[in-house]
């Protein structure tokens, strides 16, 4: 199969990140350029130079890339370097997963802000109805926390690579504590 026919964004680069070939989806997604580094967002540039290399062949690296539409998006870059010191890079967008989490959090925030759960609790009248409404809210909060934890798990390997896991470890501990407390309240 020719490089252009690959069904995913693919680049063949040399050690200096000059683009030697690319797939049609890559050409459609990214603006024409001679250097693969021109697609890397400034905040990910050092990480790309460090971890996209023959020393890290067959490792996945999460980077923020600039697309043709000037939108910056998270990508997982899968790399393999051959004996001719050419890098074969496949760039898979993580945008849909991040957007899904952000949308769920936004909906929950709006629901809480608009008091969507309060009327059910106020109208409940009985302790049983109150507990049912409380249980529903608790389940939704747990679901959102699990989603945030999943997102954190996706970002964590990239943070390990740059030795910056302190905050993610703290966030993970807080989520685990909140989930533990929420499960105790539900049962």
UniProtKB/TrEMBL annotation:
Domain of life: Bacteria
Protein name per UniProt: Uncharacterized protein
